[in-house]
Amino acid sequence: MDHLVAAKQLTPEVLSGLMQKAEEYRKLLETPEGRKQLRELYPDKVVATLFYEPSTRTRLSHESAAQRLGMGVVSTENAAEFSSAIKGETIEDTVRVVCGYADAIVIRHKETGIVDRAAAASPVPVINAGDGTGEHPTQALLDVYTIWREMGTLEGLNVLMGGDLAHGRTVRSLAQVMSNYKGTSFTFVSTPQLQMGDDIKALLKERGVAFTETDDVNEAVKQADVVYWTRLQKERLEDPTLEAGFVIDESVLQNMKEKSVIMHPLPRVSEITAGVDIDPRAAYFRQSHNGVYVRMALLDYLFSHK
Ligand code: CP
User: Fold this and answer.
1) What's the predicted TM-score (pTM) here?
2) Best exposed site among 69, 107, 231, 270 by fewest CB in 10 Å?
3) Averaged over 22-43, what is the pLDDT?
4) Which residues are identified as catalytic?
């Protein structure tokens, strides 16, 4: 793996190595000696983060991961406006330039598929930090790591995905990755306008992975091991009057299994009420923190396999 552009690259074998490394880094970060040891690992590397779309978690956790491994970071947080893209520079030319300043490039962009083009033009590793309605593979990486830490296994789980499944890229990447594990089944909860894409459903059928679609959230959560909820992606809607339709609140919690986990890629808007946060099954803030450990593991993987 020279670049990480798509979730299909995250095979169970690759994920197992990354999660093991993430656990190792997590432990080292617990002590001052461990933190010092980590900072000495990659002092000669620089990571560039080019974000053409807004981000809090993905950009900052990549930058934190790089800095915790001793790397330098160069960044443009509003590349759509403040990079030379606005003057008409192509993504290919941009990476041909930035690879002279950095040893890896993390890119988020509103256009699906553009990170593949960047990777094809780049002699240094490129990481897809989210491309339009396409994919968000590093989110899938941290999501799988979170499921494994919270549930103790990645096998035999019913994964409920709900909210805006049509425009959310995190659910598309996670569905692909989880479908590789034995005994996974999916329940998709959405309004008819926000259903999971046909390409992902076709992939699940091809792999013989069971899935159902419903709009009955209270019934669906009864059998779910993982409840993965998402916000309405307002910035991608052609019809601005669309509503997500469902909310996870304390009444939904009553129907959930005692041993289950509630996840969300964040940002949360109003689709999970604040009252849910104190439930021990609500893992979304732990999930967001896991982003640093797995992105440290990913940077290490990309540099050590070059
Ligand atoms: N989960 C996620 O991608 O969050 P940001 O948009 O804040 O990076």
Assistant:
1) 0.96
2) 270
3) 98
4) 57-58, 87, 108, 136
